[in-house]
Amino acid sequence: MNAMIRLPHTLSVAPMMDWTDRHCRMFHRHLTRRALLYTEMVTADAVRFGDRGRLIGFSTDEHPVALQLGGSEPAAMAEAARIAEDFGYDEVNINVGCPSDRVQSGRFGACLMREPVLVGRMVEAMRAAVSIPVTVKCRIGVDDQDPGPALDALTAAVAAAGCRTLIVHARKAWLQGLSPKENRDVPPLDYDRVDALKATNPDMVVVLNGGLLDLDAVEAALARGLDGGMVGRAAYQTPWVLADADRRIFGAPSTDIDRHAVVEAMAEYAGRARRDLGTPVKSVVRHMLGLFQGLPGARAWRRYLSETMPNPDAGPEILIEAAKRVAPERRAAA
Ligand SMILES: Cc1cc2nc3c(=O)[nH]c(=O)nc-3n(C[C@H](O)[C@H](O)[C@H](O)COP(=O)(O)O)c2cc1C
Fold first, then answer.
1. pTM of this prediction?
2. Average pLDDT, stretch 278-290?
């Protein structure tokens, strides 16, 4: 829609634990060259002390890609950010939105909505350690917080520390009584609150997240003055929503991708990942089950892969075989 918009934040794919690993990101990268892709959340201590290659290794083909960190200790977050920069990440993002018990006991994630000063200190320490952008992903509030002052206080604290980009999942997290999954659906979405945040912070890059199902919804957010849309579950479950993003959202000339070509490219990638990284083919294929969603043959594709991928000897050719069960794009569209 707007050929002038070029910031990668204009469209991003959300950080999702167990979902947006490097193989998923590579798949999404075959659907959009431009959208910013986020990793799963990795804790600062895992980055500092864990098997880094396994935890945060990625392919240069994934750029632009942002590492999401969880933590609450400014010095540890700064060290993890430095490691992320050395690995070649384009951005580090602080998780101030995840409500799981495991995360709360570590005093990070959504409960940090109550500690804007600490989040500001993390931003400050991380910015001093790296030259890549440090961004924050948050909720509009937690539990009985009033989303007005809560989000304003967090925004003021991170802005004062030099953070220019805030991604807001436009619902509260209820830390008592709801599972993480329920916390992604039950608290109501409040887009007006995020629109108001942008209106009062025009210099901040404000990205809307939560319930964006397709590019129409992202374009609607842009039309209301927001700087971008972050798409989570829809990008994973119906990945083809990303396929027209480079043209529609970033104003790039249209490219002629079709699903079968993506399957071939991913089969090649799965073969390489198996050979070079020892990655089971299933670890790549499991992210692709939704590729043909809505087309005749989608069920046969999904079923064939679900049946064959658990076999440890399964090779990348299962993707090619599965795709034969779906009509070629043009016939399917006719
Ligand atoms: C399986 C799954 C895992 C998630 N893991 C994370 C995470 O690691 N960090 C984070 O900030 N949000 C996480 N989220 C929340 C998403 O980033 C996003 O904020 C949420 O799903 C709302 O966006 P959506 O309605 O477009 O899915 C996760 C969501 C899902 C579905």
1. 0.95
2. 97
